[in-house]
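INFO  loader      accepted 1 record
INFO  loader      residues=494
INFO  predictor   begin
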Amino acid sequence: MEPVVSQPDVVSKPAKLAYSVGHVLNDLTASMWFSYLLVFYHRIVNFTNASSGYLLLIGQIADALATTFIGFESDRTRTGLFGYGRRKTWHLIGVICVVGSFPFCFNLCIDCANSDLWAQFIYYAMFIVIFQFGWSCSQITHLSMINELTHKEGERVALNSFRYAWTVASNIFVYAIASVLLGVHSGNDKTDITPADAHIFRTLTFTVVGIGLFCMIMFHIGLKESTLPAEETEHRLQLSLTASGKLKRMTWKKFLLEKEFYQCALIWMFTRVILNVTQVFLPLYIIDTISTLNRVFVAIAPLCSYVSGLIASFPMRAINKRLGRKVTMIIGIMFVLASTFLFWFIFKLQHIVRVEVTLTIACVLLGIGTSTSNICSFSLTSDLIGLNTECGAFVYGIMSFADKLANGILIATIQQFNPCKADATQKCALYYRQILSIIPGIVAILTVVMIVSIWKVNIGGNRHEMTEETKTTSMPCNNHVNDVEYDETAPLVA
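INFO  predictor   done
INFO  writer      dumping tokens
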């Protein structure tokens, strides 16, 4: 009998590059979605604050439901379309949906710009649901591929770091282009954004989709996925891993019975809430709280945040290896807390430093903190999945479901109670200051509590033990696994 070949220990550099750009379209569109959705729908389309928040909530609910469905179906899929690969087929479906719907989300309603707002609301909601479904297809399958490309912990951290580096680079690109467009088309009003600026968002949208589509082509051409049926690949991997009877076979039900599953899910959710809430309300904080600044800071401030996050992502592999994920994440959370302090006391510090300088420092600290904590939360989830790749998409789907739903409900609630009106300038300024300081601060503290709760836990390590269950056929997330006969002498194709 020929030996069974497991996953490679090291992913080649071309494969890492191809994988790392596979989420760029999602990253570019997500940057616009969270940073400028409320600005566009409230100040360009003239929806109320509450209606703008409901559109975001609709998108987040659609995304949350789609991630759960796609997580199941991606794991259950035997082979991809025409042998293309099960993960890449779902990823391609996502790309098509995003490219076909996103341009409509940030442009004035075609042939209905002067229609009633309820009609425009339905128009935008329809394209938002399609966009979020496609976004979920690409996100879940892209994340689940990490554990299928390699089982080496250091390589998985590297893939997560490269992936997040491109995420940060994508955000930098969006904010850089936005700052140029906002600066060039300032006109007479250099502090506010009005319906006359609709063409700026149109140009930004088409630029984002074009660059993202180019990166998707690189991903699909440059990264090869196994063409074996999913259940055969997983079975052969299990043969190599359970030869000594040390790894339990997992199902989605067994994951739901693990305490660490919920702890990691909360950590994932908290870190994403910090990132998304600050990303959504930072532009409004600049426009309404620091109203004297040029509107170009709507792009420059988050740009500073993401540049610092990009720089912080490069040494992440070495820091994780030296300090461990949990210590590294707590350090990142400390940076987040420091930034919330500056956002709150920005005016009290203006006799020491200028408001622009304080804002920049706060954004830099926020970027380092969110970059560090998000990379670590991704890595913790990867550890939770471990070698049990048969349910990888399901785990990432549930994690994403939790964070999308939490973010949607929280942001919609904030908008529902938003006091910002034409005659409520002072209330508006205080409101955004509270949102950008208190909410991320509380969530950061909750994140630390959850990290402490798993301090001595070996995430995913409790499955490496001899059990009677590993000796029998267990039904994994892929329900077709028992219908296939395996040639145990054939090598595993990674």
